[in-house]
Design goal:
- The chain has about 230 residues and is of the alpha/beta class.
- It has 2 domains: about 5-115, Tetrapyrrole methylase, N-terminal domain (Cobalt-precorrin-4 Transmethylase, domain 1), CATH 3.40.1010.10; about 125-230, Methyltransferase, Cobalt-precorrin-4 Transmethylase, Domain 2 (2-Layer Sandwich).
- The chain is built from 8 helices and 10 strands.
- The strands form 2 sheets. The chain has a 5-stranded parallel sheet with strand order 3-2-4-1-5, with helices on both faces. Strands 6-7-10-8-9 form a 5-stranded mixed sheet.
- Helix 2 (about 40-50) links the parallel strand 2 and strand 3.
Length: about 230
């Protein structure tokens, strides 16, 4: 019997943005009944939104716990040895990029299960594309430290790298977005370039690159909105 595959299935970044999902992903979802997901409710809603004919109650879901490690004998991947395909879904956007899906992919490789990444929206790459910054040399720094001294030090490190041409991409919990912008305006050089990409793929999408001196006088509502920040040259 041929082994099933592990499909890395991108999901939408914003509500009502199913137009960002390629048709072949919908075809993969139609033929897949086993899923490893970051959030059960979000995953079920996404699958139903792109495949209304899908019997969601006939699907089997395994919800990831990002705080634990997974072993070779985890049952959620063993269905592949019965010839069943398995889908890995992120909470939003591309699996394994700024989410815990990579742990599953590691186990799949150890079990010699074929891993198939599928094309779809990634907030990180969309923000970089729209920033105007160097896309040949860049770093994704994930979430910034919470502790104030570490946070400031990290911002200064990223600024130094960005001003040398190494684009620096990062993010924070949405409710801290406003404070983060205030910190950058206060702590970084006035001519350092910052791109803010917010609500990507939604009707309220916003992407703008300006020096920090101009961000200081610009009104923008970032509170509790998904955003990517980029420092560049």
């Amino acid at each position: 019997m041929q082994k099933g595959r592990l499909y890395l299935i991108p999901t939408i970044l914003a509500e009502n943005a199913t137009h960002t999902i390629p048709e072949y992903i919908k075809e993969t979802v139609v033929s897949t009944d086993y899923y490893i997901v970051e959030n059960l409710k979000t995953a079920r809603r996404f699958i139903k939104s792109i495949c209304k004919e899908k019997d969601i109650d006939a699907c089997t879901f395994f919800e990831l716990d990002k705080h634990r490690d997974y072993k070779l004998d985890e049952s959620f991947l063993l269905k592949a040895f019965e010839g069943k395909n398995i889908g890995l879904l992120s909470d939003a956007g591309t699996p394994c990029i700024a989410d815990p899906g990579n742990k599953v992919v590691q186990v799949a490789h150890e079990l010699d299960i074929e891993v198939v990444p599928l094309v779809g929206p990634s907030s990180i790459l969309l923000a970089l594309m729209g920033s105007g910054f160097n896309g040949q040399q860049f770093s994704f720094n994930g979430y910034l430290p919470i502790e104030q001294a570490e946070r400031k030090n990290k911002l200064l490190q990223m600024e130094t790298a960005a001003r040398k041409g190494n684009t620096q991409i990062f993010m924070d919990t949405p409710y801290r977005n406003v404070k983060l912008l205030e910190e950058m305006i206060k702590q970084l050089k006035y001519d350092t370039m910052l791109c803010i990409a917010c609500n990507l793929t939604s009707s309220e999408e916003f992407i703008k690159t300006l020096p920090l001196a101009e961000w200081k006088n610009r009104k923008i509502d970032l509170h509790k909105k998904p955003a990517i920040f980029i420092l560049g040259k």
